[in-house]
Amino acid sequence: MGMIRKTASKEKIKQAFIVLLETEGFQKMTISSLVKQAGINRGTFYLNYLDKDDLAQQLVNDFFTDIAAILKQDNGDRNDWFSPAAISQIIEYVQNNFAFAHALLNSDLKGQVKELLSQILAQAFLHQHANLQQPKIKQPYASEIVFGGIASLFTLWIQRNMQESPAALLQIIEAYRATPPYQILRP
User: Fold this and answer.
1) Mean pLDDT in the chain?
2) DSSP states along 138-154
3) 136 — phi, psi (to 5°)?
4) 92/90 Cα distance (integer angstroms)
5) What is the pLDDT of residues 162-176, one digit of tens each?
6) Hey, how many other C-beta atoms are within 10 angstroms of the C-beta on 110?
7) CB-CB neighbours of 20 under 10 Å
8) Residue scoring higher pLDDT (173 or 80)
């Protein structure tokens, strides 16, 4: 019974975090506002988290751990990029966690979250596919172009309330990966 109650409390806290992130932002958020929004007492909050930074860190880590797991299981037939199947799974995961992702990327945590996504993509890529020590463009610029670009596409899609379908986003990412930058804006 205790584990069910703890899980329910954590879910209430997460939902309160999402609401307050959207309305107040992380910096203005307080433990008082969190517990009031969640409908719990302060003690329940502190049974689960040390403070709001710990809460944010745990929620963000869980989100990106799941994305990293999707990428690490990628057994696509490409030698240098993530497979369309893995990208599709990430799109689906983000859709299923839209409220959280949207709150993060429309808050004062946006920069940190986008950077984390880029790092997760790079780590998974290195883990499975390549040595990025000698790319055609000097590091860290090469990684920023490749992984920062994909992270930016996901970020924009989320911030725009996922206006494009998952299939359309996958098509955009595939075109980005296959098209040299100087050709992207050409007719």
Assistant:
1) 88
2) -TTHHHIIIIIHHHHHH
3) -70, -25
4) 5
5) 999 999 999 999 999
6) 14
7) 22
8) 173
DSSP labels for the chain?
Answer: -HHHHHHHHHHHHHHHHHHHHHHT-TTT--HHHHHHHHT--HHHHHHH-SSHHHHHHHHHHHHHHHHHHHHHT---S-SSS--HHHHHHHHHHHHHTHHHHHHHHTSTTHHHHHHHHHHHHHHHHHHHT--TTS-SS-TTHHHIIIIIHHHHHHHHHHHTTT-S-HHHHHHHHHHHHHS-HHHHT--
| Confidence tier at 7 by pLDDT (50, 70, 90) | confident
For the entire predicted model, the pTM comes to: 0.85
Phi and psi torsions of 96, nearest 5°: -70, -20
Dihedral over alpha carbons 88, 166, 141, 130 (to 10 degrees): 10
Instruction: Give the separation between CA 67 and CA 162, rounded to whole angstroms.
Output: 18
Task: Give dist(CA 133, CA 142) in Å, integer.
Answer: 10
